[in-house]
């Protein structure tokens, strides 16, 4: 039915399992699907419709909607498609959004190891290289605006940490930085770098040769902060973190489902 060599081919593995369950008369009463919104994009809508039709053929009624974590109490711009499929003649209504009370700063650790601060070699990549044809510098600055001005984390991914540029935290001179960013006058001068974790490189030209400089400290989210942004309690994170590397923990967080969103979905089934 579909190219099962792709990650989305997992759907068709689920279909196979469901058909086997049907033969045994043991179909689950409810299914919950979570995927990226692109699953119902123009390019993928045909397969998405086939999946829904396949479920209908087994007796399920399906309801789907894109939900963002910020609408359910988590300060992360995580947008995902959720589909609830219920066996039999039942209706389902998706939960309504609630006001966001938490900010990104509420999710941050008080003491952070220096290894999470961005080193100047990485900054050179962000400011001098391109990614998918676009300057990484712009994406880097946009990430700082999101995390510091809007106090939101970008969507966590399996490549969080040093390789990702969506969730950098500015922990010094935030107000000055945002003010300059809004004026569009920030630039970088590599000669101004001072230490591995400090850059004095973001500056704005005020008049002719008059330069206003500042030291800015920028870091990545820690694994624990990423888990918090997925709605995971610290004690549960500590259990997960045993014998795990940072890269493994970043991957786990990025591939997870926001707990708070799931809780709201399940409440509507009661």
Shape: elongated
CATH topology of the largest domain: DNA Methylase, Chain A, domain 2
- What's the CATH class of the largest domain, please? Alpha Beta
> Helix count, per DSSP?
9
Total domains: 2
CATH architecture of the largest domain: Alpha-Beta Complex
Q: Hey, roughly how much beta strand do the residues contain?
A: 15-25%
H/E order of the elements?
A: HEHEEHEEHEHEEEEEHHHH
Please write out the topology.
Layout: H1 10-23, E1 30-35, H2 45-57, E2 60-68, E3 79-87, H3 120-128, E4 130-131, E5 134-135, H4 136-149, E6 168-170, H5 174-183, E7 186-188, E8 198-199, E9 202-207, E10 210-213, E11 216-220, H6 223-228, H7 234-241, H8 246-254, H9 259-267
Antiparallel strand pairs: 1-3, 2-3, 4-5, 6-11, 7-9, 8-11, 9-10
Short description:
The chain is of the alpha+beta class and 270 residues long.
Question: Can you tell me about this structure?
Answer:
There is one protein chain. By secondary structure, this protein is of the alpha+beta class. The chain has two domains: about 5-100 and about 260-265, Rossmann fold; about 105-255, DNA Methylase, subunit A, domain 2 (DNA Methylase, Chain A, domain 2). About 35% of the residues lie in helices and about 20% in strands. It is built from nine helices and eleven strands. It has a three-stranded antiparallel β-sheet with strand order 1-3-2, with helices on one face. A three-stranded antiparallel β-sheet has the order 6-11-8. It has a three-stranded antiparallel β-sheet with strand order 7-9-10. Helix 3 packs across helix 4 (about 135-150). The longest helix has 14 residues, at about 10-25. It is elongated. The two termini are about 35 Å apart. Residues about 1-5 and about 185-215 have low confidence and may be disordered.
